TrEMBL record:
This is malate dehydrogenase. NAD(+) binds at residues 35-41, 61, 130, 153-155, 260. Residues 183-341 form the Lactate/malate dehydrogenase C-terminal domain. The active site is at residue 213. It comes from Cyclostephanos tholiformis. Substrate binds at residues 117, 123, 155, 189. Homodimer. Keywords: NAD, Oxidoreductase, Tricarboxylic acid cycle. Residues 30-181 form the Lactate/malate dehydrogenase N-terminal domain. Pfam families: Ldh_1_C, Ldh_1_N. It catalyses: (S)-malate + NAD(+) = oxaloacetate + NADH + H(+).
Length: 344
């Protein structure tokens, strides 16, 4: 499901006028983007503005959102846009609409707030800054939209998702079926690289990626790609590449933003389709009893009220089993780090 070209992009490709989409089947859904002025937040918000699935888009950041919202509001699609800051400047200008108004009534909250990596940094190096940001924002979700589905992009996902769970538990609002760490970029990368290597169209490939979202905890299951026979060297190269090469290529200017915005949008759109009653299966980092880690990324079936089923892992190839065994201690310790932070 993650592999499907999203509705907004399909609409963009087929719209006869090129800049306006049919709204006849438009859904009513409110999506809040927290960290909306950032490298991921802006293109993610643009894709949301193009989406026929979204009727209300509310943007929040500590800087820049009134301008981003004003800019997006000139795109002739049916959704409304607001941009809020913690201070009394907002778009439209109606006083301090802040986090409360951003979140009230939200069906889905997407969180790309926080600092990205620079070369030489691991995702775990971001912990000190991003843990507090995610904690504060999820406290807002517990207060203002306790029923929303929450999709966390901020790294380190392996720790920020457990932090979010603890924050929600403390507020008495935790529903493990509605909290997700977004690992869709790993799936997008695995699909792209496998398709390139096999000479196929990426839309015909849907690689399952399990584990977590940091370094060796990212484990793409290339052995399941139908008909593919990768050599050991190819398999190793594909696996390592899926764990990221953008940070180095950007040489200090951050990490993936455009491909992450696409991946974050696909994830969000799949949640909205699930809320509308479609059955959706996509990989996500969620509370899980599949392994002895309390959170784990794997394909999950999502319906109206969140996760309906965490699908069984199935057999791993010997190569995948080797990485699985290597990753588990690291994954568990990153989860524990998040839990400890939230309870400190
Ligand atoms: P960025 O620095 O360009 O943007 C982050 C935005 O968050 C900024 O606009 C900033 O003002 C805002 N922000 C900071 N504190 C905030 C707060 N308390 N409330 C609201 N907004 C706040 O960073 P970028 O490149 O957009 O990356 C964002 C996060 O996404 C990073 O943590 C990065 O590591 C992560 N990421 C996750 C991926 C994934 O696959 N899950 C892939 C790529 C990046």
């Amino acid at each position: 499901a993650t592999n499907a070209v999203s509705g907004a992009l399909r609409a963009a490709a087929t719209s006869p006028r090129g800049c306006s989409f049919s709204t006849t089947s438009a859904s009513k859904a409110k999506v809040a983007v927290l960290g909306a002025a950032g490298g991921i937040g802006q293109p993610l918000s643009l894709l949301c503005k193009l989406s026929p699935e979204i009727s209300e888009l509310s943007l929040y950041d500590i800087v820049g959102t009134p301008g981003v919202a004003a800019d997006l509001s000139h795109i002739p699609t049916h959704s409304s846009v607001t941009g809020s800051l913690p201070s009394p400047v907002s778009f439209p200008m109606k006083g301090n609409i802040g986090l409360e108004e951003t979140l009230s009534g939200a069906d889905v909250v997407v969180i790309p707030a926080g600092v990205p990596r620079k070369p030489g940094m691991t995702r775990d190096d971001l912990f000190n800054t991003n843990a507090g940001i995610v904690k504060t924002l999820v406290e807002g979700c517990a207060k203002f939209c306790p029923d929303a589905m929450i999709a966390i992009i901020s790294n380190p996902v392996n720790s920020t998702v457990p932090i979010a769970a603890e924050v929600l538990k403390k507020a008495g609002k935790y529903d493990p079926k509605k909290l997700f760490g977004v690992t869709t970029l790993d799936v997008c990368r695995a699909n792209t690289f496998a398709a390139n290597s096999l000479g196929l169209d990426p839309k015909d490939i849907d690689v399952t990626v399990i584990g977590g979202h940091a370094g060796i905890t990212i484990l793409p299951l290339f052995s399941r790609v139908g008909g593919a026979k990768f050599s050991d060297a190819e398999l190793e190269a594909l696996t390592v590449r899926t764990r990221d090469e953008v940070v180095a290529a950007k040489a200090g200017a951050g990490s993936a933003t455009l491909s992450m915005a696409y991946a974050g949008y696909v994830f969000t759109e799949n949640l909205l389709r699930a809320i509308r009653g479609e059955n959706v299966v996509q990989c996500a980092f969620v509370e899980s009893s599949l392994t002895d880690a309390s959170f784990f990324a794997s394909p999950v079936k999502i319906g109206k009220n969140g996760i309906e089923e965490i699908l069984p892992l199935g057999d791993l190839s010997p190569y995948e089993k080797m990485w699985f065994d290597k990753m588990m201690p690291e994954l568990k310790s990153q989860i524990q780090k998040g839990v400890a932070f939230a309870n400190a």
